[in-house]
Amino acid sequence: MVEFKFIHAADLHIDSPLRGLETYSGAPVERMRRATREALENLISLALEQRVAFVIIAGDLFDRQWPDMNTGLWTAQQFRRLQQAEIPVYLIRGNHDAASKVRQAVRWPDNVHEFSVRTPESVVLEEFGVVLHGQGFAHRECPDDLASTYPDAVVDMSNIGVLHTSLTGSTQHDPYAPTSPETLIERGYDYWALGHIHQRSNPPIHENPHIVYSGNTQGRHINESGAKGCLLVTVAGGEVARLEFCETDTVRWQSVAVKLDENDDVTALLEAVREKLEACRARAESRLMAIRLTISGTCVAHRTLANPRDWEETQAEIRNLANELDVLWIERVVLETRPPVDIEQLKTSPDLIGELLRMIDEIAADDGQLATLAGELDGLHGKLGFDLEQLQVDLHDPDQLRRWLNRAGGLIVDSLLEVEG
Questions:
Q1: Alpha-carbon distance 86 to 284, whole Å?
Q2: What does the mean pLDDT of the chain come to?
Q3: 92 has which bridge partners?
């Protein structure tokens, strides 16, 4: 059998609107909105450089119905780059670009094959001894286990399954075409090219047969942080010989933590932030780094940072540092510092401070009380002048609520100690 390479990609979400960016001060909106297109351009350049046998896109090529025909025309032109090199593309539709949701109004070049959305379909590539099996989504909602209806493996061929699925489930993604690794293994395929989960499975979910999520090609918000790209798969002797992750992103989201010591003041904070940002710039290469900075620690600086005006000025100086480094943009600065007092000792006191701190701990430790708090906040958020979802704020995330409660405890201690002082 011949040795060859192919690319496994998924969840490109071309022209994702990235709503909510305008709410951030100084956000490089246009550059970030170009990023999904640039990721596809990088993927295609990789395919040409590596002279791959074919490219697989396991769903969600598009994010939604095209805002205009330019989205389809541009994508077709990119596929023509592969057509000129005689590299075919095999793609399925996912929940975001299901047949009922995104109408195919532009004819694909002849090198693009879109799998049926009605029933599993198989495509034989005699030259490479490969059979591809796949089925796309007819509708956005797909509660059925599509994989269970895929055909059995073709004997003496390398069998590759292409599937958009939540597999056994993910807390960060809605369930679509749910299935299990056991069901995939039973099909007898050599490789399962999965899409839908935006985090690359490293190591693979299963090896021999390989069951793998490639992740998305471009992160779109802080919950999709780190390197994003596709998988370059080498097949030798009819077996998967190598998996290589290849970066395609041009904007990279990164969470950065700055932990302050007890005697650290605002000057020390800014020095620590600069050090962290310079390290990010060193890793950026030509990418834009979108950074969420979390400042924590029991420290002297807390007294200054707890003052709204001083905190606003400190955030401005942090953004100024990022601007000096050019390739960095601060998406948000999160403050989780605490005053340099013995909080645990205060919790034992019989006064108002101790009672409030104990109450906060009680709520944070009780899932039922957290759920009640989430419900109360949910009823209030409609009165706010911005979209919490676009800001990646989940009122029903218990960890997020616990962070807010911890921050509230610090503010209470600051305020009451100031009154007592």
A1: 33
A2: 89
A3: 58
